[in-house]
Amino acid sequence: MAAPPQSALMRDRNFTWLMSGSVISALGDQFSMIALPWLVLKLTGDPLALGLVVALMGIPRAVLILFGGALVDRYSPKRVLMLSKHANTLLLGVLALLVFRGEVTLPIVTVLALGLSLASAFSIPAGTSMLPHAIPAQRLQAANGILMSIRQVTMLAGPLLAGLLFALAGDGSHGMQDARGLGLAFGFDAFSFALSAWTLAKVKPLPRPEDQAQPQRQPLLRSVGAGIAAVWRDATLRTAFLYWGLCSCVVGGILQVALPLLASNRLHGASALALLAGAQGAGSLAGMAITGLVGRRRIGNLGVTLLLLDGIIGLLMPLLGMITTSWQGAAVTAVIGVLGGFVNVTVYTWVQQRVPQAMLGRTMSIFMFVVMGLTPLSAALAGWLADWLPLGALFTGAGLFLAAAALLAWLLTPMRSLTNAEPASARAL
Question: CA-to-CA distance for 146 and 385, rounded, in angstroms?
Fold first, then answer.
């Protein structure tokens, strides 16, 4: 009898090296995701400055990710991913050193954050394209399931460990002389990138028949344009991308600013922000598990299910503006995480199944561009609004927007008739 897919994967050296690097890198990312916005708040005390830094990080990444996807389709995903890991190691190492020496300033943080954004524009499409180049096709489903589970676990463990680190070593609440915990967080993330680069070097990409053919390469801009045109011609894909992008722009941008402000103004500092993020990670892990349990069963169909869950998330978000204790916030973010985890996994799987492999790198980069492109501008606007509006109004506005968008999409767009994707091979995109 054939061995179970999981057993075969654990004997696959490529997968074990990729899994090992994924664990440490994903864990390190969670430390920086908490530490960086908190560092900006402690340096400035200004919500607008936080929004602007988030915008400066997101805009270059969102634009250049289109070219990142084209480069991944042209060159080896391993080469692109390796270069991005080395760049992140250097940038985060410099940031950690400056925090330890008490020499960090907002302009320096902005420049380093911009560098991290540029690196992620190439690492995101390279990382999502790496697995098919290293794992036999018949093991991809099991491999994706394991790696996605690992990432969700790090979303739970990482923020909680970061919160403990900040509580023990200092989070800058009493000045940069009390920011050793932030420096350790950035240092750990730098180490995680260096270690994951070493594990990636052990991976040996599998030979592919198309690698021997060496087809003529399109110019980079033409390759990007071909990907955009292919997505635009697919009316269902186009509608879904625009809807998800609009919701991500408004809701995601506001939450990037509002959650750190909530932790700073009402709760107990960086450790409270870490608790909120950890609770959301735990909820996402549960939502992903539910996705596996329910399989392809839906409430009506796929579109109705996704729109209904978006509406519920929108109605839950105003509760974040009413909380006064960390456990209340953790409870709300955990429920949002469960629903969001189910939506994210379902959407990601739907796109993967719908798009032919030859276009997957560019399509995923376009998808990430759509969902991230305007989010930085939304974050900057949220930072400005936070100077004029109560914090609860930000959460309420974002939640009502998401609920209204889901309702209008159900009434006016083909989203309500979305069904489980056919195999990509059955369709010419």
Answer: 41
Q: In angstroms, rounded to a whole number, what is the distance separating the alpha carbons of residues 295 and 298?
A: 9
Q: Sign of torsion, CA 178 180 186 188?
A: negative
Pair 84, 29: CB distance under 8 Å:
no
The pLDDT of residue 68: 80
- Integer Cα distance of 176 and 294 in angstroms: 49
Q: 178-184 long-range CB contacts below 8 Å, 24 or more apart?
A: 179/39, 179/42, 179/99, 179/102, 180/100, 181/35, 181/270, 182/35, 182/38, 182/39, 182/99, 183/96, 183/97, 183/99, 183/100, 184/96
Domain segments of the chain as ranges: 14-204+221-423
pLDDT surpasses 90 at 189? yes
Please tell me whether residue 46 adopts helix, strand or coil conformation: coil
| pLDDT for the residue 168 | 85
The span from the CA of 92 to the CA of 154, in Å, is: 19
- Is the pTM for the entire model greater than 0.70? no
Of 420, 418, 405, 61, which is closest to residue 244 (Cα–Cα)? Answer: 405
| 35-51 tens-digit pLDDT | 888 888 888 887 777 77
- By mean pLDDT, which of 87-101, 183-197, 340-354 is the weakest? 340-354
- To the question of domain 14-204+221-423 being in CATH 3.40.50.1110, the answer is no
